Amino acid sequence: xxRQEEAVDNKLQPxxxxxxxxxxxxxxxxxRSGMLIGALIASILLLxxxxxxxxxxxxxxxxxxxxxxxxxxxxxxxxxxxQFIQNLIQQEYYYEEDVSPEALREGIYRGMVKALGDPYSExxxxxxxxxxxxxxxxxxxxxxxxxxINEKMGIAMIxxxxxxxxxxxxxxxxxxxxxxxxxxxxxxxxLTQVVSRVKxxxxxxxxxxxxxxxxxxxxxIERGKLLETATVExxxxxxxxxxxxxxxxxxxxxxxxxxxxxxxxxxxxGMKGLVLDLRDNPGGNLNAVVEIARKILPAGLIVYxxxxxxxxxxxxxxxxxxxxxxxxxxxxEYSASASEILAGAIQDYNKGTLxxxxxxxxxxxQQIQKxxxxxxxxxxxSAYYTPAGRNIHKVGIEPDVVLEYDxxxxxxxxxxxxxxxxxxxxxxxxx
Length: 431
Description:
alpha+beta, Pdz3 Domain, six-stranded antiparallel sheet, 31% helix, 25% strand, globular
């Protein structure tokens, strides 16, 4: 199998597309039926579909599964049950359209991974994998919105809107809940499944049912061609022109260069203090956040990972590009994964002051393993730890200054109380 570089994504992905949809969309009946069968088969834990001889023949030379990994579920009883379910579907299942063999197979693959009960592990079809890879590179086709899953509500939401994008022109706003895409509910869908439905060929239209403050809004948005995804926003603050503001929306491959360029411009403006805004940043690429950390931290450990065998991998910094001005980092309950790696390391080294509320708490790492037919599985493979040895999974990082966001002040007066606190702290340090 080919392996993609490790990712610590939550994972928010830019709503983009670089491939014409074409054959990707199955008939809706086939897809829903396949997923129903996948869920059914997942209930009997068909985790051995690729074990032993069948897996070896399909994937070629691949290291054998260790006997210590546990008993294989691929036995005659399981195979017989699969055959029985298949026959039952073919003979008795009633729906508007027949269920294709390919839809059933895909349902099995998705069901296998779903049976793990891990919201971060996922099966990707060939087209879904290509979309994920393209979005991580910042290549863009679509409506120009960033989508994540609101874990508390179990539904997709808009977590960012690009400037001059179809999404912005249509009136989409950060925080909008995506209830339906083209009439299909997003409840229970994975992030990849939602994103793949919102994306599409340039010039085509997607219909979104959005909930905003309890009100349903129907929007038709024409997909377009987008330039490189902007993951970094920056500028000098009006309240104090010696303080720079830099927001990282997510960590993609393009983020490193965007961060570097932003910092260079801010220094040209005479920046003497920096607000680094990681609020609502759901994570992304591990290598990207490590490279940015190397431009901030002193010499030493940035983060390390440990897998189930106890193998440890360390990511370090030589300290040659250590940030030399006061720093405040803004975080909230949606700051997750890669953003927690950066925030945690800054806190461990006392390199800056964290302001906000306890972060999301995702301290595990995923890796995408590609297969010869172009599909892939994203699987949780390890846990990560901050330089001080903290694993923050399901715990989060508590800021140095705990301050709830004042939504009322923001709506009525346009005041960001967390940002104001950051400015106050920096002014004290700069003096």
